[in-house]
Amino acid sequence: MCQVGEDYGEPAPGEPSPAPRPSREQKCVKCKEAQPVVVIRAGDAFCRDCFKAFYVHKFRAMLGKNRLIFPGEKGLSQDSAKRLRFVPGVIFVDEGAAFGKSLEERSKTLAEVKPILQATGLPWHVVALEEVFSLPPSVLRCSAQEPAGSEGAYKAAVDSFLQQQHVLGAGGGPGPTQGKEQPPQPRPDPQSLAGPPAAAQTGALSQLFCSVRTLTAKEELLQTLRTHLILHMARAHGYSKVMTGDSCTRLAIKLMTNLALGRGAFLAWDTGFSDERHGDVVVVRPMRDHTLKEVAFYNRLFSVPSVFTPAVDTKAPEKASIHRLMEAFILRLQTQFPSTVSTVYRTSEKLVKAPRDGPAAGDSSPCCLLCMCALDVDAADSATAFGAQTSSRLSQMQSSTPLTETQTPSGPCCSSGVGRVLGCGQGACRREDPQACIEEQLCYSCRVNMKDLPSLDPLPPYILAEAQLRTQRAWVLQEIRDCLIEDSDDEAGQS
Amino acid sequence: MPAPPCASCHASRAALRRPRSGQALCGACFCAAFEAEVLHTVLAGRLLPPGAVVAVGASGGKDSTVLAHVLRALTPRLGISLQLVAVDEGIGGYRDAALAAVRRQAARWELPLTVVAYEDLFGGWTMDAVARSTAGSGRSRSCCTFCGVLRRRALEEGARRVGATHIVTGHNADDMAETVLMNFLRGDAGRLARGGGLGSPGEGGALPRCRPLQFASQKEVVLYAHFRRLDYFSEECVYAPEAFRGHARDLLKRLEAARPSAVLDLVHSAERLALAPAARPPRPGACSRCGALASRALCQACALLDGLNRGRPRLAIGKGRRGLDEEATPGTPGDPARPPASKAVPTF
């Protein structure tokens, strides 16, 4: 492909011509004995057992290489290296209410999912998305990381089924970990034995999602709420890690999607192996080296059961959302240039989690209210794309119409240069425009998403409560800033 | 239904809606807003200090035409002087018409114009000759590679001839967005690490380059040209359809349809990328032949020309590069001197 470092117009390097189909005489490339059943990458044919070994090896190597799951353990012996020494639980989030599925449909899906969860032999939890309405605001606070070793008994990981499990089983598999640990007595979570969630909450959730204007914003909101919910469950049950089943293909698509959404600053967190932005709970993606094809074949060859549940964008046309567009584009480009996904993946490995430069950096740097990444916009951004949006506000501001939310893609009146131009104080903003005050606590891409929400009221109460708390805190800090003594050498007292 | 009044002056009837904000404006107010935004870009980024002699890369196309026009309107405010520099790549039937447009513009605006031709600068090689040479080895796509590199050199040379202190090009927000998409799809970590900023400050003796239109979307550039009744040349280069950038451009069009702010969102993403230090290109040195900025013994332009002259046009592209200097080290991935295959868009 037109790839840096390759000759133009030639097929993928290392091949004089497209790979010949494995002939009947060809043996598995690894053990060289058995008949191959699947072709991975460009022409590597594996037999069933070697494929399983290859798949599991990649999974383990990804965990071991990143040394994240066993932070305190030293000197793993040869034997113990063969076993994954942690006890994962499995969590399933029922999101049916978000796209208007009836209670019967949802209980039907649950009836299919529960046996699968039970069959894994791991502790499992089922939770409905409506529960976001009972979350506490503390979910949005980055807790400090717990010191390694203090949770020795609970060094557990939670497998999270991705909502979009296609028939071929693209979702996170308990497969690789099956049968490798001492399975505890499977005990269902008491919470999931409760009846269906309160109708009021279901109504509130569907109202929230119906009010979102674009599919792109819906998908992003869904992801945000799901993340918060899983985070809360993990904390409640003492899990320190959350594993998701994102494959290489999905992560490549996710990377390009997030690029288009304005999340360029956070790509390393969104698509890297580990994501510690929440502090005490780390999101881990152990399957990021496996292509979707490998996952599909694994599930098929080893009969890993999966359930297909329609997602918020099922049957939507290709143009409906950025996510759909990017997925279709990448998969189409992949047919023409077979190294597309691996190229994007390799590039993603070169991304680092860089702190934002400037006086806002450090432990006290503000985090986005929703996605909990360090804010990537501030008042100094006059010479950037963000600044370009705010400056176009300036030229519109001549006629000094009051700010309405349709006119506020970004840069609310408080802390940006525009506000200073208009001379409005923070106190005034707080009273007149709570929406703008919430917006300034969001990162760039969350702000763009919130534009598609005509009113922020249907949001779950924990978000609004936390936003209010932060605004008040910031206001208080502003009041006393003159009296505080700062350690740093930077010029103090910038307001 | 009658057109709404202009949201800015409230006097005239609105003639357009700005693509980004949907605001209804009359022609004059839109042009004023556009110019104000370009001015803000230049001032906020401190791109063109007072007293600068600015060489405008003029291709005759809409971007460079709008750029020249806006900068000309802003010269009293900025305290700069303008020089038009046009590059003649020697593409028959295409470049001649474009150059005619540039000459008309120069005459109308009374700006000095300098034309530099590949044929003179690069030992008789025109793009048509390059295309013939590369077509023989079955890679017609790579002629865009040559054009990009050589054009940048030609522009630099033309700017020097007129005594310029800065070079400006007409890249708009869509170009920047396409570039970041393309660089990810092609895995060009080196270029990702370098690009996305406000142009290059000009290291190692190269002139500083910037893109004053980089936050203006393509639609707005076209709208501006329409309302100011600017005369420009609007055909696509004959070699362009082969370039990989076409995929990125297609994707960008669709993204914009799904979300109008996609272009600026991508530019925002590009500005905030954080790449590992190893991915960043090494400190550049000087080409042993022509003295220009280079990250290896020969700069890319000299390397490409060398290959052409030796009858081995692939020499400086891809793995064939190894044959260039016999003791060459294998090419590192993400070589910053390698330009993207693109329609006549110089590398940043």
Automatic annotation (TrEMBL), chain B:
Keywords: ATP-binding, Cytoplasm, Nucleotide-binding, RNA-binding, Transferase, tRNA processing, tRNA-binding. It is an enzyme of class 2 (transferase). GO terms for molecular function: ATP binding; nucleotidyltransferase activity; tRNA binding. ATP binds at residues 57-59, 63, 87, 170, 175. It is found in: Cytoplasm. Pathway: tRNA modification; 5-methoxycarbonylmethyl-2-thiouridine-tRNA biosynthesis. Residues 54-237 form the tRNA(Ile)-lysidine/2-thiocytidine synthase N-terminal domain. Pfam families: ATP_bind_3, zn-ribbon_14. Its EC number is 2.7.7.-. Component of a complex at least composed of URM1, CTU2/NCS2 and CTU1/ATPBD3. May form a heterodimer with CTU2/NCS2. This is Cytoplasmic tRNA 2-thiolation protein 1. The gene is CTU1.
